[in-house]
Every structure is written in structure tokens, then in C-alpha cells.
Here is the input.
Amino acid sequence: SVQSVDWILKNESMTPAEFKVFSELAAKSDCPKINAYLLHRGEKKEINPRDELLFRLNSQEPTLRDDGYHQILNDIFDYENDHEVIVAFLKSKPSPEKADLVLQSIGTQLKSNEQFIKELLRLDNTRFSVASQALKSNKKLIIDLVKESNRIGLAFLADIETELLSDPRFMHELWRLQPMSIRYANASLLKDRSQVMEYLKSYSGLYSLLIDEFKNDPEIYMTALNQDGSVFKDLPKDVRNDSSIFMLALETAKSRQD
Here is the structure.
């Protein structure tokens, strides 16, 4: 099974007899991981370069942490549109600089591949800038990603097409799925007082992003403060000096902790 192969690759704890059986199975299965492992053990003389590269990445050999990484990087550049190779590289936990270097060089096919972009964001949710312009404006994809926000977060929204961030209906839909999404909306969408009031009832953190006119609006700041006492730090100075406001902030913070 894939699980047993992965376990063997990481442990290399087979007895000679077990290794003999493993080798016989490898000859029948032609599994790339097994073949790479056999090459690693000196039991095979030839191997597909791609399989060898995947083995080195998946096994996280010490060479991934030293000068040997230079050769791995050179090899990876030959697989600019290979989903499996690029993901295996990123899972090997390269430095941010090396990850940047590889992601900047990936091919057009991968940049336009929804499944690759989704997997990329599950590894690093700040990498949506890598996606093609078509994917950055793909409403269905973005909605699917927001639905996964508990897993991947929302940072990717900073890189979606500006037109979408200015689209009131689309941003409202994202807000309904995940209230914090609204913090990425274009400022032009936060000038409707009634809409702002609605957003604040489910996401008080929006208060810090509002224009001064709204920050000084008693109904607005009270709505936010009743949701979250930490809003107190963003209130206008003269409002913070009001002892009743200070007490309300303490009570709200305490109730949230309880």
C-alpha cells in the first residue's frame, strides 16, 4: 500500500528477508517510490530522473538542508508545470527564499490549474499571487476557498482581482460565508452607513478600517463595542475618556471570556 511504502521510505528498517520480498514486489508494481528507494539502496541501476527527484523530496534527505539543495533546485526548474514535483518541493519545507524562486518560475499551466492553486494555498495562504489572472477573477474558485477558510485562512483575498473587491454583491456573498472577508473589501464599499452597521454586527474588527466619520458615529462605535471590548483601543480619544464607555468595554471583554 502507499502507506506502507511511505513508512518504509522514512524508516528503512527492513530485514534482509523483508527487503528481498519488497524488491520482488517492486519488480511487479513498477511503483516510482519503490524504484527510487531501490536505487537509493543500490539495488537498481536505472531510474526515471523525475522519480529520483520525487524520492529525494518526499524522503526529506539531509541534502535538502545543505548545498545539495542547489542541484535539486536546478532539477525542479525542468518541471515547471509538474503539479506533483512542485508540491513535493514545497512540502519539503524550503526556505521562503527558495520557495519564492521556484514559484516565480512555474509554468502557465500550473498557474491556471485550480487544483494546484488550492493545494498551494493549503500549504501557504499568502501565495495566491502565483495564480493566473483568470483564477484571480474566478468567483466560484474564490467562494470555494472562502468556504475552506477555517483551514487556509483569508489572506489570499488580498490578491484577488480589484474589481471583485469592489463588487458589492460579491463581497456581500463572501461576508455571508465568512464575516471577516469584508475586511478585504474596497474602501468604497464601506461608505454605506446601513451596510456598515450590518457588517459590524457579525465582524466588529471592521471598525478599525472605517472612515473617521463613521468611527465618531455613536451608534456605529456602540454596535462594535457591544460585540467586542477590544474595539475600545480604536475608539476616538474623547470617546475613550468616557468612563461609561470604558466600563462597557470591560464588561463586553469579560462576557466574551466567559
Observations:
- Residues 15 and 64 are 27 Å apart (CA to CA).
- The longest helix spans residues 243-257.
- DSSP finds 19 helices and no strands in the chain.
